[in-house]
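Journal club side-thread
Mid-discussion, someone asked how the predicted structure for our own chain would compare to the paper's figures. Pasting it here so we can look after the session.
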Amino acid sequence: MVTLKDIALHCGVSIASVSKAINHMPGVGQKTAQRIRETAKAFGYLPNAAAQSLRTNRSFTIGVLLLDENNQSLLNGFFAVMLEGFKIRMEEQGYDLMLLNRTVGKRTVTILEHCRYSNLDGVFVACIDFSDPELLELAASDVPLVSVDHAFKGHSCVYSDNEDGIYQAVMHAAAQGHSKIAFILGGKSGVTDKRLIGYKKALKELGIPERAEYIVQSCYRDVQRTFEATQKLLALDDRPTCILMPDDHAAHGGQLALRHAGLKVPDDISIIGFDGLEYFNYISPRLCTVSQDAGQIGQKSADLLINAIENKTGEMKPASVTIPVKLVKGETVAPIT
């Protein structure tokens, strides 16, 4: 069995330094600590989790709170890619992940109670409803936290540039001659608000009047509601020539509504999605979409959370990071002829 002494001899450091490095404690230089951890990994050393927790008062476990509108967050392709990026980065630093819920055994608990019960070192939050009282209670506690697309006071946040994403989508449609550009919104949230700002900003710059009937409410990843929202737009006397969808998945509903009406994409009406999920690269016609770098969002969230955990004294201020988006032109936007 590999011991701390074996690792110390190999690295030319003290046993105490090895213990500090493996337990992510201060007192060892960053490069030396990284070399020690890499050596421990190469040697196959695994510290006893219970003993490690007693020594450091840390569990090296991170809570993950993913909640979308349909309570199907793990089926959400965007969330899945984001979580994978977060998971890889946290595992590189020796942390395990735990999905948070509101039960421990048969007992119902709050999110904060679950964090205390499991002695979690921090929490990663990505969801739609950031006004949940239990989430606000967690954010007001001393548990390190990082969130996506919403900033809590005293905590770091990673944003995807939703405003610029929709702005780019409208500008692309306009460049193809479209001026009748409709927008099917996702559920009410900060993300939706920012996308709506980008939509209105682009129309204003282009000199295209806003039309209230061209803005229709749906939900993220909801095929049926997006099908119905698209039907509303098609029923207008002066229907749009291009429709922005809530996301790539919901765009299926829009395409079905167009097909049901005997219309073709993009010959009759153009559509643009949001997310840039790889799956849609293999569907014909390839969806024009705004691609979010979900993996980068996850990795940056992990970096910020690790900093918060390892600097709980308040030496580091919370950070706000925005990850750029990119328009992928695809094949679902045709020029107006």
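Post-session note: Residues 61 and 96 are 5 Å apart (CA to CA).
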